[in-house]
Amino acid sequence: MQINELVQAAHQNAVAKGWWEEDRSFGEIIALIHSEASEALEDHRNGHEPSEIWYERKIAEPPSFYTVKKARYATDKPCGIHSELADICIRVFDACGRYGIDLEAAIEEKMTYNATRPQRHGGKKL
Asked: Which Gene3D superfamilies match (predicted)?
């Protein structure tokens, strides 16, 4: 899939799951993107490596979960920093779908501009 196809798929899924039955403010959308980044940071703070993957499996009703190292079922929830980074992208894709943003063109334009910037522009250490 191309980026704009992923944008449409993410947004259509969010609409189908009812997340756009009431309009959200742009601030709320940005806060949701930020919350996914915070979840990735929390996984890091809890000692997980960026490449570490585990799964939560629903085993009973009401919902309760236990953790496994390998997905065995389509309903196993992927967990870890990789999953939170994917969630950031999915939220960004959904937002771009909502606002009609051509994300693919925006990324290409910004990467072209970034290539013209000096090394470690701004002089920041972090």
From this structure: MazG-like (1.10.287.1080)
How far is the C-alpha of 2 from the C-alpha of 96, rounded, in Å? 14
Cβ atoms of 8 and 15 closer than 8 Å: no
- Does the residue 31 lie in any domain? no
Closest C-alpha to 33, from 14, 48, 16, 56: 14
As given in the structure block, the two tokens for residue 56 are 């939560």
Q: How far apart are CA 32 and CA 78, in angstroms?
A: 19
Residue 122 counted as domain residue: no
Quick: pLDDT tens for 53-108.
999 887 655 555 677 788 777 888 999 999 999 999 999 999 999 999 999 999 99
d(CA 14, CA 8): 10
